[in-house]
Structure prediction request, 280 residues.
Amino acid sequence: MENPYLPYPVRIAQIFTETQDQSLKTFKLVFLNPDDEQAFTYLPGQFAELSVAGKGEAPIGIASSPTEKGFVSFTVNEVGLVTAHLHKMREGDLMGLRGPLGNGYPWDLMEGMNVVIIGGGFAFTTLRSSIVYMLDLANRPRFKEITVVYGARTPGMLLYKEELAAWERRDDIHMHITVDATDDPDWRYNTGFVPAVTEQKVRSAHNAIAIVCGPPVMIRYTRPVLEKLGFPPERIIFSLEMRMKCGIGMCGRCNIGESYVCKDGPVFSLAQLKQLPPEY
Ligand SMILES: Cc1cc2nc3c(=O)[nH]c(=O)nc-3n(C[C@H](O)[C@H](O)[C@H](O)COP(=O)(O)OP(=O)(O)OC[C@H]3O[C@@H](n4cnc5c(N)ncnc54)[C@H](O)[C@@H]3O)c2cc1C
Ligand code: FES
Prediction:
Protein backbone atom coordinates (compact mmCIF):
# COMPACT_ATOMS: atom_id res chain seq x y z
CA MET A 1 0.00 0.00 0.00
CA GLU A 2 1.25 3.50 -0.83
CA ASN A 3 2.27 5.70 2.08
CA PRO A 4 -0.31 8.56 2.19
CA TYR A 5 2.14 10.78 4.09
CA LEU A 6 4.80 10.66 1.37
CA PRO A 7 5.03 13.97 -0.54
CA TYR A 8 5.76 14.27 -4.25
CA PRO A 9 9.10 15.99 -4.91
CA VAL A 10 8.54 19.31 -6.72
CA ARG A 11 10.73 22.21 -7.88
CA ILE A 12 9.82 25.85 -7.42
CA ALA A 13 9.69 27.06 -11.04
CA GLN A 14 8.59 30.64 -10.36
CA ILE A 15 7.78 32.89 -7.42
CA PHE A 16 5.59 36.00 -7.74
CA THR A 17 5.18 38.55 -4.98
CA GLU A 18 1.47 39.35 -4.96
CA THR A 19 0.97 42.10 -2.42
CA GLN A 20 2.56 45.45 -1.72
CA ASP A 21 3.59 44.38 1.79
CA GLN A 22 5.21 41.18 0.34
CA SER A 23 3.28 39.00 2.80
CA LEU A 24 1.73 36.93 0.01
CA LYS A 25 3.69 35.09 -2.65
CA THR A 26 2.55 32.69 -5.35
CA PHE A 27 4.70 29.60 -5.89
CA LYS A 28 4.50 27.84 -9.22
CA LEU A 29 5.62 24.23 -8.68
CA VAL A 30 6.58 21.58 -11.22
CA PHE A 31 6.74 17.87 -10.52
CA LEU A 32 10.14 16.20 -10.78
CA ASN A 33 8.49 13.00 -12.06
CA PRO A 34 5.92 13.23 -14.90
CA ASP A 35 3.99 10.26 -13.42
CA ASP A 36 3.40 12.27 -10.23
CA GLU A 37 1.84 15.09 -12.26
CA GLN A 38 -0.54 12.55 -13.86
CA ALA A 39 -1.46 11.22 -10.42
CA PHE A 40 -2.12 14.70 -8.98
CA THR A 41 -5.62 15.19 -10.46
CA TYR A 42 -7.65 17.81 -8.63
CA LEU A 43 -10.70 20.06 -8.76
CA PRO A 44 -10.92 23.70 -7.65
CA GLY A 45 -11.56 23.95 -3.92
CA GLN A 46 -9.13 21.19 -2.96
CA PHE A 47 -5.93 21.80 -1.03
CA ALA A 48 -2.53 20.17 -0.53
CA GLU A 49 0.11 19.97 2.17
CA LEU A 50 3.24 21.90 1.20
CA SER A 51 6.33 20.57 2.94
CA VAL A 52 9.69 22.18 3.60
CA ALA A 53 12.44 19.74 4.56
CA GLY A 54 13.15 19.78 8.28
CA LYS A 55 10.44 22.36 9.01
CA GLY A 56 7.10 20.62 8.48
CA GLU A 57 3.94 20.92 6.40
CA ALA A 58 1.20 23.50 5.91
CA PRO A 59 -2.22 22.97 4.28
CA ILE A 60 -2.66 25.45 1.41
CA GLY A 61 -5.52 25.75 -1.11
CA ILE A 62 -4.66 24.98 -4.73
CA ALA A 63 -4.62 28.29 -6.61
CA SER A 64 -4.05 26.92 -10.11
CA SER A 65 -6.83 25.38 -12.17
CA PRO A 66 -6.76 21.79 -13.44
CA THR A 67 -7.11 23.35 -16.92
CA GLU A 68 -3.62 24.87 -16.50
CA LYS A 69 -1.13 22.15 -17.37
CA GLY A 70 2.50 21.58 -16.43
CA PHE A 71 2.44 23.16 -12.96
CA VAL A 72 0.44 23.60 -9.76
CA SER A 73 0.40 26.92 -7.93
CA PHE A 74 -0.19 28.07 -4.36
CA THR A 75 -0.44 31.54 -2.86
CA VAL A 76 1.01 31.60 0.62
CA ASN A 77 0.65 34.13 3.42
CA GLU A 78 3.72 34.36 5.64
CA VAL A 79 2.45 33.67 9.18
CA GLY A 80 4.62 31.14 11.00
CA LEU A 81 7.28 28.44 10.83
CA VAL A 82 6.57 26.66 7.53
CA THR A 83 5.24 29.64 5.59
CA ALA A 84 8.18 31.84 6.67
CA HIS A 85 10.63 29.23 5.39
CA LEU A 86 8.68 28.93 2.16
CA HIS A 87 8.92 32.68 1.71
CA LYS A 88 12.72 32.45 2.02
CA MET A 89 13.00 29.80 -0.69
CA ARG A 90 14.20 30.60 -4.22
CA GLU A 91 13.25 29.59 -7.75
CA GLY A 92 14.91 26.23 -8.46
CA ASP A 93 14.67 25.01 -4.84
CA LEU A 94 13.11 21.61 -4.12
CA MET A 95 10.24 20.96 -1.73
CA GLY A 96 7.37 18.48 -1.17
CA LEU A 97 3.71 18.41 -2.16
CA ARG A 98 1.17 15.99 -0.66
CA GLY A 99 -2.33 15.75 -2.05
CA PRO A 100 -4.67 16.68 -3.55
CA LEU A 101 -6.71 16.68 -0.34
CA GLY A 102 -10.29 17.52 0.63
CA ASN A 103 -13.49 17.55 -1.35
CA GLY A 104 -13.42 20.72 -3.50
CA TYR A 105 -16.39 22.82 -4.58
CA PRO A 106 -19.62 21.00 -5.63
CA TRP A 107 -18.99 21.13 -9.40
CA ASP A 108 -21.81 18.72 -10.30
CA LEU A 109 -24.32 20.90 -8.44
CA MET A 110 -22.92 24.12 -9.96
CA GLU A 111 -23.39 22.90 -13.52
CA GLY A 112 -26.17 24.82 -15.35
CA MET A 113 -26.44 27.41 -12.56
CA ASN A 114 -25.61 31.08 -12.07
CA VAL A 115 -22.47 31.04 -9.95
CA VAL A 116 -21.77 33.80 -7.43
CA ILE A 117 -18.17 33.78 -6.16
CA ILE A 118 -17.58 35.79 -2.98
CA GLY A 119 -14.05 36.12 -1.66
CA GLY A 120 -12.06 38.16 0.79
CA GLY A 121 -8.35 38.51 1.50
CA PHE A 122 -5.96 35.71 0.69
CA ALA A 123 -8.75 33.11 0.81
CA PHE A 124 -9.36 34.10 -2.82
CA THR A 125 -6.81 31.45 -3.92
CA THR A 126 -9.17 28.54 -4.59
CA LEU A 127 -11.70 31.01 -6.03
CA ARG A 128 -9.04 32.07 -8.56
CA SER A 129 -8.72 28.38 -9.43
CA SER A 130 -12.51 28.18 -9.84
CA ILE A 131 -12.75 31.27 -12.05
CA VAL A 132 -9.97 30.11 -14.38
CA TYR A 133 -11.64 26.68 -14.50
CA MET A 134 -15.08 28.08 -15.38
CA LEU A 135 -13.72 30.53 -17.97
CA ASP A 136 -11.88 27.76 -19.80
CA LEU A 137 -13.32 27.57 -23.33
CA ALA A 138 -14.47 23.98 -22.90
CA ASN A 139 -16.04 24.62 -19.47
CA ARG A 140 -17.69 28.04 -19.90
CA PRO A 141 -20.90 26.67 -21.51
CA ARG A 142 -21.46 24.46 -18.43
CA PHE A 143 -22.23 27.50 -16.26
CA LYS A 144 -24.72 30.37 -16.64
CA GLU A 145 -23.87 33.84 -15.33
CA ILE A 146 -20.68 34.16 -13.30
CA THR A 147 -20.56 37.01 -10.76
CA VAL A 148 -17.53 37.71 -8.59
CA VAL A 149 -17.35 39.90 -5.49
CA TYR A 150 -13.75 40.08 -4.26
CA GLY A 151 -12.47 42.35 -1.53
CA ALA A 152 -9.16 43.16 0.10
CA ARG A 153 -8.17 45.67 2.77
CA THR A 154 -6.40 48.01 0.31
CA PRO A 155 -5.63 48.01 -3.44
CA GLY A 156 -2.08 46.84 -2.63
CA MET A 157 -3.45 43.72 -0.90
CA LEU A 158 -5.40 42.43 -3.92
CA LEU A 159 -4.10 39.16 -5.38
CA TYR A 160 -3.70 38.37 -9.07
CA LYS A 161 -4.01 42.01 -10.18
CA GLU A 162 -3.30 41.38 -13.88
CA GLU A 163 -5.88 38.61 -14.05
CA LEU A 164 -8.47 40.73 -12.23
CA ALA A 165 -7.97 43.44 -14.86
CA ALA A 166 -8.28 40.89 -17.68
CA TRP A 167 -11.50 39.43 -16.20
CA GLU A 168 -12.86 42.97 -15.83
CA ARG A 169 -12.57 43.43 -19.61
CA ARG A 170 -14.53 40.26 -20.43
CA ASP A 171 -18.26 40.25 -20.98
CA ASP A 172 -18.88 36.69 -19.79
CA ILE A 173 -18.08 37.41 -16.12
CA HIS A 174 -19.33 40.21 -13.84
CA MET A 175 -16.50 41.47 -11.64
CA HIS A 176 -17.10 43.57 -8.50
CA ILE A 177 -13.74 44.31 -6.90
CA THR A 178 -13.74 46.24 -3.65
CA VAL A 179 -11.37 47.49 -0.95
CA ASP A 180 -12.20 48.39 2.64
CA ALA A 181 -10.69 51.83 2.19
CA THR A 182 -8.30 53.75 -0.04
CA ASP A 183 -7.10 57.30 -0.63
CA ASP A 184 -5.84 56.39 -4.11
CA PRO A 185 -7.41 58.95 -6.48
CA ASP A 186 -7.02 56.48 -9.40
CA TRP A 187 -9.03 53.71 -7.69
CA ARG A 188 -11.89 52.98 -10.09
CA TYR A 189 -13.59 50.00 -8.44
CA ASN A 190 -15.79 49.75 -5.31
CA THR A 191 -15.04 50.84 -1.77
CA GLY A 192 -16.76 48.99 1.07
CA PHE A 193 -16.87 45.63 2.79
CA VAL A 194 -17.65 42.46 0.86
CA PRO A 195 -21.09 41.81 2.47
CA ALA A 196 -22.27 45.35 1.58
CA VAL A 197 -21.02 45.09 -2.00
CA THR A 198 -22.67 41.67 -2.28
CA GLU A 199 -25.97 43.22 -1.14
CA GLN A 200 -25.65 45.98 -3.77
CA LYS A 201 -24.48 43.90 -6.72
CA VAL A 202 -26.04 40.44 -6.37
CA ARG A 203 -29.63 40.91 -7.39
CA SER A 204 -31.16 37.44 -7.39
CA ALA A 205 -30.78 33.96 -5.99
CA HIS A 206 -32.71 32.51 -8.92
CA ASN A 207 -31.02 29.31 -10.14
CA ALA A 208 -27.91 30.53 -8.34
CA ILE A 209 -25.30 29.06 -6.03
CA ALA A 210 -22.94 31.15 -3.87
CA ILE A 211 -19.38 30.04 -3.08
CA VAL A 212 -17.99 31.99 -0.13
CA CYS A 213 -14.36 31.94 0.99
CA GLY A 214 -12.84 34.52 3.29
CA PRO A 215 -12.01 35.49 6.85
CA PRO A 216 -14.55 34.50 9.55
CA VAL A 217 -15.86 38.07 9.93
CA MET A 218 -16.62 38.28 6.20
CA ILE A 219 -18.38 34.91 6.30
CA ARG A 220 -20.43 35.94 9.36
CA TYR A 221 -21.80 39.08 7.69
CA THR A 222 -22.18 37.65 4.17
CA ARG A 223 -24.35 34.73 5.27
CA PRO A 224 -27.41 36.86 6.25
CA VAL A 225 -27.11 38.87 3.02
CA LEU A 226 -27.32 35.68 0.97
CA GLU A 227 -30.17 34.33 3.10
CA LYS A 228 -32.08 37.61 2.63
CA LEU A 229 -31.54 37.37 -1.14
CA GLY A 230 -33.22 33.96 -1.00
CA PHE A 231 -30.29 31.54 -1.36
CA PRO A 232 -31.36 28.28 0.32
CA PRO A 233 -28.84 26.75 2.80
CA GLU A 234 -27.83 23.98 0.40
CA ARG A 235 -26.79 26.60 -2.18
CA ILE A 236 -24.60 28.66 0.16
CA ILE A 237 -21.19 27.00 0.09
CA PHE A 238 -18.31 27.79 2.46
CA SER A 239 -14.71 26.67 2.59
CA LEU A 240 -13.42 26.32 6.17
CA GLU A 241 -9.86 26.87 7.36
CA MET A 242 -9.42 24.76 10.50
CA ARG A 243 -6.06 23.88 12.01
CA MET A 244 -4.93 20.62 10.41
CA LYS A 245 -2.11 18.12 10.66
CA CYS A 246 -2.50 14.93 8.63
CA GLY A 247 -5.04 16.22 6.09
CA ILE A 248 -6.43 12.72 5.54
CA GLY A 249 -8.80 12.07 8.44
CA MET A 250 -6.26 10.17 10.61
CA CYS A 251 -5.09 12.47 13.41
CA GLY A 252 -8.38 13.93 14.69
CA ARG A 253 -6.97 17.46 14.73
CA CYS A 254 -9.66 19.09 12.59
CA ASN A 255 -12.94 17.46 13.52
CA ILE A 256 -16.19 19.33 14.10
CA GLY A 257 -18.56 16.84 15.72
CA GLU A 258 -18.45 13.74 13.54
CA SER A 259 -16.99 15.52 10.50
CA TYR A 260 -13.33 15.95 9.59
CA VAL A 261 -12.76 19.28 7.87
CA CYS A 262 -9.75 17.86 5.99
CA LYS A 263 -11.57 14.84 4.54
CA ASP A 264 -15.30 15.65 4.54
CA GLY A 265 -14.52 19.31 3.73
CA PRO A 266 -13.03 21.87 3.67
CA VAL A 267 -16.08 22.74 1.54
CA PHE A 268 -19.47 22.51 3.29
CA SER A 269 -22.89 23.90 2.45
CA LEU A 270 -24.69 25.98 5.05
CA ALA A 271 -27.24 23.15 5.23
CA GLN A 272 -24.43 20.75 6.26
CA LEU A 273 -22.93 23.22 8.74
CA LYS A 274 -26.30 23.64 10.42
CA GLN A 275 -26.13 19.93 11.33
CA LEU A 276 -22.72 20.38 13.06
CA PRO A 277 -21.79 21.89 16.44
CA PRO A 278 -20.89 25.59 15.99
CA GLU A 279 -17.14 25.06 16.46
CA TYR A 280 -15.95 26.50 13.17
C1 LIG B 1 -7.94 23.93 3.83
C2 LIG B 1 -6.98 25.07 4.11
C3 LIG B 1 -6.58 25.89 3.07
C4 LIG B 1 -5.69 26.94 3.32
N1 LIG B 1 -5.31 27.69 2.26
C5 LIG B 1 -4.38 28.66 2.45
C6 LIG B 1 -3.91 29.40 1.33
O1 LIG B 1 -4.32 29.21 0.18
N2 LIG B 1 -2.94 30.32 1.57
C7 LIG B 1 -2.45 30.56 2.84
O2 LIG B 1 -1.58 31.41 2.98
N3 LIG B 1 -2.92 29.89 3.92
C8 LIG B 1 -3.86 28.94 3.76
N4 LIG B 1 -4.29 28.22 4.84
C9 LIG B 1 -3.77 28.55 6.20
C10 LIG B 1 -2.40 27.89 6.37
O3 LIG B 1 -2.56 26.50 6.43
C11 LIG B 1 -1.72 28.35 7.67
O4 LIG B 1 -1.49 29.74 7.62
C12 LIG B 1 -0.38 27.62 7.80
O5 LIG B 1 -0.60 26.26 8.12
C13 LIG B 1 0.48 28.23 8.85
O6 LIG B 1 1.61 27.41 8.95
P1 LIG B 1 2.96 27.93 9.63
O7 LIG B 1 3.79 26.75 9.95
O8 LIG B 1 3.61 28.98 8.78
O9 LIG B 1 2.41 28.66 10.92
P2 LIG B 1 2.46 28.14 12.45
O10 LIG B 1 3.85 28.39 12.93
O11 LIG B 1 1.90 26.78 12.56
O12 LIG B 1 1.43 29.17 13.08
C14 LIG B 1 1.60 30.59 12.99
C15 LIG B 1 0.29 31.29 13.23
O13 LIG B 1 -0.68 30.89 12.24
C16 LIG B 1 -1.86 30.37 12.86
N5 LIG B 1 -2.36 29.25 12.04
C17 LIG B 1 -1.76 28.08 11.81
N6 LIG B 1 -2.53 27.28 11.04
C18 LIG B 1 -3.65 27.98 10.79
C19 LIG B 1 -4.84 27.70 10.06
N7 LIG B 1 -5.08 26.54 9.46
N8 LIG B 1 -5.79 28.66 10.01
C20 LIG B 1 -5.60 29.83 10.63
N9 LIG B 1 -4.50 30.15 11.33
C21 LIG B 1 -3.54 29.23 11.42
C22 LIG B 1 -1.41 29.93 14.22
O14 LIG B 1 -2.47 30.01 15.15
C23 LIG B 1 -0.34 30.92 14.57
O15 LIG B 1 -0.90 32.11 15.08
C24 LIG B 1 -5.20 27.18 4.63
C25 LIG B 1 -5.60 26.34 5.68
C26 LIG B 1 -6.48 25.31 5.43
C27 LIG B 1 -6.89 24.41 6.54
S1 FES C 1 -6.09 17.01 9.90
FE1 FES C 1 -5.89 15.04 10.73
S2 FES C 1 -7.95 14.38 10.85
FE2 FES C 1 -8.06 16.26 9.75
Observations:
- The CA atoms of residues 12 and 89 lie 8 Å apart.
- The pocket of FE2/S2 (inorganic) cluster (ligand 2) is lined by residues 244-247, 249-254, 260, 262 (CB under 6 Å).
- The two ends are 34 Å apart (CA to CA).
